[in-house]
Amino acid sequence: MTSSNVGIDIILNFRYNINGGIMQRYFAKDKINNEFILNNDDIRHIKLVMRMKDNDEIIVVDKKTPYLCYLENDKVIIREELKEQIDFPYVCLIVPILKENKMD
Length: 104
Known about the structure:
The protein has 104 residues and is mainly β. The chain has a single domain, classed as CATH 2.40.240.20. 10% of the residues lie in helices and 35% in strands. Strands 3-6-7-8-5-4 form a six-stranded mixed sheet, with no helix packed on it. Strands 1-2 form a two-stranded antiparallel ribbon. The longest helix has 10 residues.
């Protein structure tokens, strides 16, 4: 599976795997050579909850930089660094002045 199999939603900036599902994103604890170390809870979630197998792809974020990675024998191997630019929309919140003292 190559990165060309990964779809990108330009509007929402989601990455999709080959099966059409949104790719899981995890945060790295440490990086050694071409491999990431994740915490034990994340490894458990990847294997048992998400039921991912070898060669399945995930996104790992290390120091604000996302990487496309794949699984290999409980290891997370870097495939490539992703060049993502996230532009957040401008949001303006307006809160009316209420007559009551409560704001539920």
